[in-house]
Amino acid sequence: MAQTVDELRNEIRVAVGRFEREGSAAFTKEDLAAICDAVEYEVETSGRLPPKAEMRAGILWKIGALEENNPNAAPSSFRKNELEAIETTVQ
């Protein structure tokens, strides 16, 4: 049976050391920072975390879904096929 987007998000959260969420919940900045670390995209974490769009773009660039690290080219949330690729990478 195919996984839902929420199930994929939770599997990614668990794989990067975060906790599962009940119901539909988008990734928080902390979730995205943990995913960035798992895909080896470095973000500055000593102060404020960068904008979500910047982290999403970096993640997609690292997994090969974007040709360049461009926050303007990143979607406002991950699509199911992108979540599947992220899950494969962080597992």
SSE arrangement:
Elements: H1 5-15, H2 29-38, H3 52-62, H4 80-90
Helix pairs in contact: 1-4, 2-3
What this model shows, in words?
Helices cover about 45% and strands about 0% of the residues. It has about 90 residues and is an all-alpha fold. It has one domain.
Total strand count, please?
0
Largest sheet: none
Work out the helicity level.
Answer: 40-55%
CA radius of gyration: 12 Å
Total helical segments: 4
Order of helices and strands: HHHH
State the end-to-end CA separation: 19 Å
Instruction: Provide the residue-averaged pLDDT.
Output: 92
**Number of self-contained structural domains:** 1
Q: How much β-strand is present in the residues?
A: under 5%
Structural class per helix/strand content? mainly alpha
Shape: globular
* Sequence stretches where pLDDT stays below 50 over 5 or more residues: none
